[in-house]
Design brief:
Radius of gyration: 21 Å
Distance between the termini: 41 Å
Number of strands: 16
Strand order of the largest sheet: 1-2-3-4-7-8-9-10-11-12-13-14-15-16
Structural class: mainly beta
CATH architecture: Beta Barrel
Order of helices and strands: HHEEEEEEEEEEEEEEEEH
Shape: globular
Number of domains: 1
Oligomer: single chain
């Protein structure tokens, strides 16, 4: 059988049995900060618009694309931030799609002169869709190569609500936080089975190990170490690496995987290049697969565009304490 039939069969099996799906992952997780944690909502000078696109495994038949767009605003007078985040993920030849639209809120507590704590929440609507007539089922596979028609049993599109909570602590060099997502364990079965999306946990953080400034105001050179650990059901993933910024360019390299936990070397080595100006950040990253799928996937591509703008006075901007994490 061809690879296309094999992948279609696997996808069909997953759809019509009780399965535990996983959320899409962005390599440039700080370029999609609201997706990483609602605590980042409003963690900007005033307004921020972010657009992200990921093309996962382009060599595999079918599409594995993820799109994300977010907008957030700092409420300086209330030490708060609000935002909206929409994601659309489509996978496989049957175009199994997941749409999430969420409203986010965060609040910044000034613990002392150096430290801040920022909790956040995300209330969201979730919708699952599927074009079942694009799937190829085992009963359609014949020796002659003909593909007879199939009439699958009717199914219902899936809609549900969900909730995520996060916390973030930071000073002028260090940041660390966590997110617990899918706290309402939304349903994910097209046929009404008792199949729930498992809770996902993220633990992330990092530190600026070196930085140089000009006139004690603008960072001209920064070297940061960052990590992001994820767990969902029985699946684990860790990203750890370096970001180097030298105005206006940024470079990054990091490793995805959990060493010594499996027989594989890991999942991917990721490279990043980007440009960062006062208002516009553009980044491109490529995941080079190092797992057993190294010859089958052609890696993954990801693009991010972040635009920040404000109308605040200098005095109002000074009230905002910047989180020192990278923008990619």
């Amino acid at each position: 059988m061809s690879k296309r039939i094999i992948y279609s069969f696997i996808l069909s099996f997953l759809i019509f049995t009780d399965s535990f799906s996983q959320d899409p992952t962005f390599s440039q997780f700080y370029a999609n900060a609201l997706y990483l944690a609602p605590s980042f909502a409003g963690a900007t000078e005033e307004y921020r618009l972010a657009i992200n696109y990921r093309n996962q495994w382009p060599a595999i038949p079918g599409v594995f694309h993820t799109y994300s767009i977010s907008f957030d605003k700092a409420l300086v007078n209330f030490n708060s931030g609000i935002g909206v985040l929409a994601t659309y993920d489509v996978a496989g030849s049957g175009e199994l799609s997941t749409t999430n639209i969420g409203l986010l809120y965060s609040y910044d507590f000034n613990i002392n002169e150096n430290w801040h704590i920022r909790p956040g929440v995300n209330f969201k609507f979730r919708y699952l869709g599927l074009d079942i007539y694009k799937l190829v089922f085992a009963s359609q596979m014949t020796g002659s190569g003909n593909v007879p028609s199939v009439y699958p049993p009717p199914f219902s599109k899936v809609a549900d609500v969900d909730f995520a909570a996060s916390g973030l602590a930071y000073n002028d060099r260090f940041w660390g936080g966590f997110t617990i997502d899918h706290l309402l364990t939304p349903k994910q079965s097209f046929y009404g089975d008792d199949s729930k999306l498992p809770i996902k946990m993220n633990v992330f953080g990092g530190i600026q190990v070196m930085r140089k400034t000009r006139l004690k105001q603008t960072f001209q050179e920064v070297l940061s170490i960052a990590m992001n650990f994820q767990k969902q059901a029985n699946f684990y993933q860790t990203d750890i690496g370096l970001y180097y910024y030298r105005n206006p360019l940024i470079f990054g390299v990091w490793y995805r995987g959990i060493p010594f936990m499996t027989t594989q070397a890991g999942d991917a080595i990721i490279g990043l290049v980007g440009i960062k100006t006062k208002q516009l950040h553009i980044g491109y990253s490529y995941d080079f697969t190092i797992s057993n799928l190294i010859s089958s996937t052609s890696g993954s591509h990801e693009i991010s565009i972040v635009y920040e703008f404000n109308s605040l006075s200098l005095g109002q901007r000074k009230k905002i304490r910047a989180i020192p994490c990278p923008e990619f």
